[in-house]
Amino acid sequence: MFESLFFWEKFRDTYGGDSVMLSVFWFGCLIFAFSHIFLVILDGWSRFQNYKRIKDNLFTHGFTPKIARLYIGSKCQRNAFLVAARELGMEDQAVHYYRRHGIKWYHLIPHYMLVDRWFLFKRSFWSRTFMEKYYEPKFNYRALKQQIYL
Q: Do residues 74 and 46 lie in contact, with contact meaning Cβ atoms separated by under 8 Å?
């Protein structure tokens, strides 16, 4: 948000001045910063839906490489997987799986972005990154946890 305000001030200062290119530049920065707010919100929503699905799958089937492989593509999806695995006591297996496949802490950029330069124009990118459908959890983990401790 502060980034958008900063770019708005820069755009407002240059708008109507002699440098049209500078105004266009600051306007482009403003549009990116403003739209970025919504993209971050949508990405968070999608990762939460991934987390709920992962947790249900791990609870039902236990840790399997097949499930872990689905979320190996991006840092955010791996984090959702690792959080769900940690909550179910399977974090060591998940970390070991990702290490065995060469995933390091600094692998921030998803692999498909490096391989396919046209990823922004693919429906699969947008649907998987920002538009995951709502996932209704199959289990009430709070109630299960309370039953275990009773």
A: no
Cα 129 to Cα 6, 76, 115: the distances in Å are 27, 10, 17
Contact 33, 2 (CB under 8 A): no
Q: How far apart are CA 95 and CA 93, in angstroms?
A: 6
Contacting residues for 96 by C-beta, under 8 A, at least 6 apart: none
How far apart (Å, rounded) are the C-alpha atoms in residues 148 and 53? 22
Name the stretches of the chain with pLDDT < 70: 149-150
Phi/psi at 80 (5° precision): -60, -40
- CA–CA separation, 83 and 81 (whole Å): 6
From CA 144, how far away is CA 84, in angstroms rounded? Answer: 15
pLDDT at 149: 66
pLDDT at 47: 95
65 near 90, Cβ under 8 Å?
Answer: no
pTM: 0.80
Cα separation, 98 vs 102, in Å, equals 6
